[in-house]
């Protein structure tokens, strides 16, 4: 064998090993981002639990709790919660697809705004404020979601940075790795 043939085989072997390593890195980072999304998916349903607890609060006998659901604030909050639940189900299946995460982000913002409206209006027809314990539970849930969001955003950033690097970009294109959207 000539020395040029040996050099070509060495270059081919190096390219092959680099490709396998880069592909494994992309798969690992994609998997890590999906795993960090699971923490978000565990925390967001806490909002539904808190809203359910707020709905069951004692109200005066002349305004049954059924009326709360018909109140604009509560109706908006319950609708926003349904939207959040639906978009969370969609995002669970596709945690790295931008449209799913954008929809989840929008739904989360709507729930937050609807909750603020209910907090301002009160939990009953006479405007009684929500108990401090529920407000603290909500703040705790928000904080847990925020921590999970930060971890997911960092994982997505690492994944997107790996895809954006030139040699890995070719493998990403070849194997269908797409840029992800942070929550």
Describe this structure in words.
By secondary structure, the protein is an all-alpha fold. It has one domain (3-175). 80% of the residues lie in helices and 0% in strands. The chain is built from seven helices and no strands. The chain is rod-shaped, with a radius of gyration of 24 Å.
Quick take:
By secondary structure, this protein is mostly helical.
Instruction: Provide the domain count.
Output: 1
Helix proportion: over 70%
How big is the Rg? Answer: 24 Å
User: Which range does the strand content fall in?
Assistant: under 5%
Shape: rod-shaped
- Secondary structure class reads mainly alpha
Question: Topology of this structure?
Answer:
Blueprint: H1 3-43, H2 45-55, H3 65-70, H4 72-93, H5 98-121, H6 132-164, H7 166-175
Helix pairs in contact: 1-6, 1-7, 2-4, 2-6, 4-5
Short descriptors:
183 residues, mainly alpha, 7 helices, 80% helix, 0% strand, rod-shaped
């Amino acid at each position: 064998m000539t020395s040029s043939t040996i050099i070509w085989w060495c270059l081919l072997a190096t390219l092959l090993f680099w490709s396998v390593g880069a592909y494994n890195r992309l798969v690992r980072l994609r998997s890590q981002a999906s795993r960090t999304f699971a923490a978000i998916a565990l925390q967001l349903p806490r909002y539904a639990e808190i809203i359910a607890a707020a709905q069951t609060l004692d109200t005066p006998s002349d305004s049954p709790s059924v009326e709360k659901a018909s109140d604009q604030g509560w109706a908006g909050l319950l609708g926003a919660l349904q939207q959040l639940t639906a978009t969370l189900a969609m995002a669970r299946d596709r945690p790295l697809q931008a449209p799913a995460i954008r929809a989840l982000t929008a739904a989360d913002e709507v729930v937050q705004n609807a909750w603020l409206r209910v907090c301002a209006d009160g939990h009953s027809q006479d405007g009684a404020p929500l108990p401090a314990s529920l407000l603290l539970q909500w703040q705790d849930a928000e904080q847990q979601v925020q921590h999970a969001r930060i971890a997911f955003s960092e994982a997505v950033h690492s994944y997107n940075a790996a895809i954006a690097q030139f040699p890995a970009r070719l493998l990403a294109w070849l194997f269908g790795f797409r840029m992800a959207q942070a929550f």
